[in-house]
């Protein structure tokens, strides 16, 4: 899958060296801002909805804070574990709303490292090459990356599923990890069956690419093809589409798999109506708003789906999508 990217930013700077890393970091920031601003995005914080302890502004602050971390990752200055630890530190130092983007960091960092290598080359931006290289990068993680990952959990305030081996909430797991030489990729392999982010690592970021492809296709108007030439509506549609196909990890962690599957079925019902009516989102905006209100009232938020959408938007921006 190729996007129309030819190695230069809109201001004419050559996308090589530091300027390429700067371009990548800005794409990551904008992706995070566009995702949290999209509304109505059922169950999640957006420009119109806050939670009691976490607000829209906390997500904006986190997005701004991440710039130097993504820039360093894109330049190849830091590994994944160190970058993740730095990302959590920066996010926490700029806002007091708790965990805003931990899952997104796990996706953006390896994708940014891959992009930093690929954007130095001439030619069109190729998504398949991007996710292939990102997959190689995560497979090469080591035990130090795994240890950094564990150390992030208490400071990031991440909610996790209890596991028997290498419990993320047990500090004693650090010694076991080091003794057995377990890498961060190994941890993701162990978690892939119940965690969407881990599944992306193991399966080569294919859902992230799928999100990017969906956004790009709908934002690009061609005769005879369905389109939604509105960035907010496209993000909302893609969010619902992904949610309809994949029960959300964060919902499952906070509640149970049955609740996560039920939410996906509700999203699928709305998506089917949109797709059967030529993608006229306005006809079903009321359905989406009602779905949003229900999930907010029940305190059910598809946070992992939001992380995947951020990565998809990021890829489209890297490829040159503008709106």
TrEMBL record:
Stored Pfam families: CitG (PF01874)
Protein's name according to its UniProt entry: Triphosphoribosyl-dephospho-CoA synthase
Gene Ontology molecular functions: ATP binding; triphosphoribosyl-dephospho-CoA synthase activity
InterPro entries named in the record: CitG
């Amino acid at each position: 899958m190729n996007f129309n990217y030819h190695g230069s930013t809109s201001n004419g700077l050559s996308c090589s060296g530091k300027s390429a890393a700067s371009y990548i970091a800005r794409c990551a920031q904008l992706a995070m801002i566009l995702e949290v601003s999209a509304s109505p995005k059922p169950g999640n914080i957006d420009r119109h909805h806050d939670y009691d302890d976490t607000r829209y502004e906390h997500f904006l602050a986190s997005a701004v804070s991440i710039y130097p971390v993504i820039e360093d990752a894109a330049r190849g200055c830091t590994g994944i574990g160190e970058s993740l630890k730095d990302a959590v530190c920066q996010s926490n130092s700029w806002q007091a709303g708790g965990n805003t983007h931990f899952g997104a960091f796990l996706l953006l960092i390896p994708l940014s490292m891959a992009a930093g290598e690929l954007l130095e080359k001439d030619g069109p931006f190729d998504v398949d090459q991007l996710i292939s290289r990102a997959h190689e990068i995560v497979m090469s993680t080591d035990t130090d990356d795994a240890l950094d990952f564990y150390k992030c959990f208490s400071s990031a305030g991440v909610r996790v599923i209890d596991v028997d081996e290498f419990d993320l909430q047990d500090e004693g797991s650090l010694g076991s990890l080091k003794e057995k030489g377990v890498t961060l990729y190994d941890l993701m392999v162990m978690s892939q069956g119940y965690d969407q982010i881990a599944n992306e690592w193991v399966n080569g970021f294919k859902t992230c690419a799928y999100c990017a492809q969906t956004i790009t296709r709908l934002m690009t108007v061609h005769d005879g093809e369905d389109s939604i030439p509105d960035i907010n509506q496209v993000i909302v549609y893609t969010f619902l589409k992904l949610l309809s196909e994949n029960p959300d990890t964060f919902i499952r962690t906070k509640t149970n798999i049955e609740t996560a599957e039920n939410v996906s079925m509700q999203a699928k019902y709305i998506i089917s109506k949109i797709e059967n009516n030529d993608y006229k989102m306005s006809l079903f905006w009321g359905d989406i708003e009602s779905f949003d209100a229900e999930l907010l009232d029940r305190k059910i938020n598809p946070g992992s789906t939001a992380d995947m959408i951020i990565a998809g938007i990021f890829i489209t921006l890297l490829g040159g999508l503008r709106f």
